[in-house]
Amino acid sequence: MRPNYDQFYIITGCISVDGGCQVHDWVKALEALGGAYSAATMRAYRNDVRAYVSWCEATGLGAFPASTAQLCAFLEAQGQGMAPSTVRRRLYAIRKVHRLLGLEDPTQDEAVNLAFRRVRRANPVRPKQARGMNAADLQKFLAVQPDTPWGLRNAAMLSLGYELMTRRSELVALRDGDLTLRNDGTLRVIIRRSKSDQEGQGRIAFTSRATAGLVEAWQDWKGNETDWVFCPIYQGHAIDRSLSGTTVKTIIKTAAKRSGYSASEVRDFSGHSMRVGAAQDLLRRGFDTAAIMRAGGWKSINILARYLEHAEQNVWEVR
Predict the structure, then answer these.
(1) Per-residue pLDDT tens for 138-150?
(2) Which of 64, 74, 146, 260 would give a disulfide with 151, using CB separation of 3.0 to 4.6 Å?
């Protein structure tokens, strides 16, 4: 029989077993993951476990260790307002903390699996896909960039991000040393770390001569003030730090607005639009899946397939 110590835990933060007190500090447990996962993954773990702990506090239950019954109840409660992908992520976070604390893992119980299946069946939500920034969009966005250092930087960023098919975090992390000008006037770029490459093995990508020219013009302007490829500009000077990922999204949306896109169309663009649009364009141009995965650094064909869903590629009309 599992001892009834839930109420004691929620008050004291301890589990009382045979008169003793065993502290289960999930925040401290997650600190053990430092350096093994990205900052974004760590934030997600903390937020998801915090949501679970808050639910436990509201229902008067101890958070760790969780019983199968309370975990099923939590999943079903979350499923009423959250997408299944969010519920699954929270389940994974709870599993991770149990393992870090050396506790028996209740997430593998068949009852929990069935509870999550009910959540998925009750909420058949398709993942929301960012609108792809395709080649036609890119040309419009480049055309509306002002004749200023900001316009020079933004044009280079938009064009490079599209051709490298980078995530926004990868784009702002580039350093001058990651770019090499080739004999044919194109760039060879090493993207050193990504969401799917936490060990930093890197991937190699290439650009057109046109994009290389835009990047070179921007680098000539910023000079040697910083080795970040893309940096902030203050009072006409390059600042020695990287841009934030949010800035990439802002630049895309601002360009769409200046290009005359409607408010709803502007909302559909995101920092991921360059990666989505370029993949869709490569499909329309006849490149096979292996070539697109190689160019964009995809590890999973399932993820790429989601990007290509909205490419409007009718195979029966290809001649």
Answers:
(1) 999 999 999 999 9
(2) 146
Q: Indicate the SS3 state at residue 233.
A: strand
The backbone torsions φ and ψ at residue 207, rounded to the nearest 5 degrees and listed phi first, read -125, 170
- Taking the mean position of all CA atoms in its chain, how far away is CA 261? 25
- Give the tens place of pLDDT for each residue, 279-292: 888 888 888 777 78
Q: What is the pLDDT of residue 213?
A: 94
Token pair 């069935």 is found at 114
Whole-model pTM: value is 0.64
- Which helix (H) or strand (E) element contains residue 137? helix 135-143
> What is the spatial distance between Cα 299 and Cα 15, in angstroms, rounded to a whole number?
43
Instruction: Using DSSP bridges, classify how beta strands 20-23 and 237-238 pair: parallel, antiparallel or unpaired.
Output: unpaired
The number of beta carbons lying within 10 Å of the beta carbon of residue 152 is: 20
Which class is domain 6-122? mainly alpha
